Amino acid sequence: MNRTFLFLGLLFLGISSCASDSIYREDQDTPNGWELKNELKFLVDQSLSAPTNIYLHLRNNQDYPFSNIFLVVNISTKDSIIESDTLEYAMAKPNGEWLGAGFSSVKESKLWWKEQWSTKAEPPFEIAIAQANRTNGRAKGEDQLPGIVSVGISITSAEN
Questions:
Q1: Are 14 and 103 in contact (CB under 8 A)?
Q2: DSSP label at 92?
Q3: How far apart are CA 67 and CA 70, in angstroms?
Q4: Radius of gyration of the chain (CA)
Q5: Where residue 115 sits, what CATH number does that domain have?
Q6: Residue range of the domain that includes 98
Q7: Which segments in the chain show pLDDT lower than 70?
Q8: Is residue 8 part of a domain?
Q9: What is the largest CA-CA distance in the chain?
Q10: What does the DSSP assignment read for 122-159?
């Protein structure tokens, strides 16, 4: 009987912890690597006039050859670019251990981009993410960034 209550309590706790203040979440798979010219685009129809936090989500596997990643991220409306940033994120510790969550060979990194961000611009918004990693001596045509399994964004309410 006590084990049943304990199990149900833990189950409820697990379910309630999954509840989120998420306004938007979308992921796009890149199963054969992320092409240099492939800018991933996310269309957000919700208003972002209230303060929000914006995160990038990267899933990588053991084939990812670098300890960091460079990204170019833009938020735009149909009329103009609202924000544009070039970002660098660490993907591994100095000892080579992957950062991020996950128990298998795939790790997901939730990377903070914007905190308490809002705009007066009207939706829809397009968030575009391009990878900007480069390798010296790369042969022409070697435009794949291996090991990136998926890329996503999430937007959460900052009013908590």
A1: no
A2: B
A3: 11
A4: 18
A5: 2.60.120
A6: 21-157
A7: 1-20, 135-142, 160
A8: no
A9: 67
A10: PSPEEEEEEE----TTPPTT--EETTEEEEEEEEEE--
Residues 87-132 pLDDT 10s: 999 999 999 999 999 988 999 999 999 999 999 999 999 999 999 8
Backbone angles phi, psi at 67, to 5 degrees: -95, -5
3-state secondary structure of 37: coil
Domain presence at residue 7: no
Domain count of the fold of the chain: 1
Amino acid at 50: A
Q: State both tokens at 144.
A: 């794949």
Q: HSE-up of 11 (CA within 13 Å, CB side)?
A: 6
Q: Are the beta carbons of 68 and 90 closer than 8 angstroms? A: yes
* Burial category of 42 from C-beta neighbours within 10 Å (exposed 0-12, middle 13-18, buried 19 and up): buried
